[in-house]
């Protein structure tokens, strides 16, 4: 979880314009850096070793370098040549960016500790430097399509319950308050949030299933409370030896702080801001559960997380900041404490909004990925829902940014199909701007159909998407 901006700028060290006839080896080396990043994300050690061997080959400038690079690009899903994935454009570094890398990096990092104006100026420089590549992700997922299949609320609840029942061992362990495997705490937060959001529909359609669902909620809350640290943050599992990317990150922290890992968990905050991820989603889920069940202990745990988030500085990774925006918005709704609202607005104005690119995504290639883009859109929706009606200026700014962000999602879905399940946020966008984009109703239906396709085949159920997305399927007709 190193600062994504720095990692991105690291790609520029040897970058060259694709197809430049005088230094084709430099172009190949830059493309291999992208391939290596994706191979590490796949946690594929053999593929990482193949990339390392190819990098040595490229440095020797062998005649087979281009063929080797293209084969590796195919192995990680990049279209040969390195300019697209699944037919959709992806980011490629250029010599101009390489020349400005240090200045741009320092400007954005320094601005994040200052004010919105400084960040806006730094982001304006980034937009100018990136040009047409502003807001292009460095990776894309393949899209899915499915035939529309209208679903009643009763059928949607049955699908939700059936998907849970398809994982009996995991559900049983979580109900007992026990963790499953080496999952991150965000996994239990999604289960908790999804169960809370689907609970009214389950109560209306299958009230006899409510006790089991409530046991799942209580078990997930117990897991989160047991692992929350005294200062309010939520830790990260020690994945050394199991995950290339996260294992190296943890090893680096332990090297400088031997007390960073305790009982199998990284208990110290990531200095680059990544701890905002788990703390944001876990705190928000606990606040939702506390409100639904009037459990003061669950609410208090969520507020401890919010207090921790309130004290964190903004970082050059926009989606990390977005997690804290969402958590603080929920904390304000739970308490009416204006400290939380002020913190959410500040973090949005400094750490989120300035980074939006003209295409509706976020400037840097990592945050422009659809999955992180969706995280930022969720935070914008959370903040808009929390803002009092009289805060017209802030509400208008958030609504405008959310509209552009939703439009970017719709652009991708219309072209490629559903690349990341986004039903929950598209429903919220439809409530915010019901007639803003004529494509929205059809693409909402496409998202519903793809969720059904992922979770039910040949008459059997499976948990094929995040539980929050399945919960969105159970929304009452008026919310669809």
Written overview of the protein:
It contains 20 helices and seven strands. With 480 residues, it is an all-alpha fold. The protein has three domains: 4-133, no CATH class; 153-233 and 270-479, Glycosyltransferase, CATH 1.50.10.20; 236-268, no CATH class. The longest helix is centred in the last third of the chain and has 25 residues, at 392-416.
CATH-assigned fold name of the largest domain: Glycosyltransferase
Largest sheet: 3 strands, antiparallel
Total beta-strand segments = 7
Low-confidence spans: 1-23
Helix/strand class: mainly alpha
Number of helices: 20
How much helix is in the residues? 55-70%
| Order of helix and strand elements from N to C terminus | HHHHEEHHHHHHEHEEHHHHHHHHEEH
What's the overall geometry?
A: globular
The CATH architecture category of the largest domain equals: Alpha/alpha barrel
Determine the mean pLDDT: 91
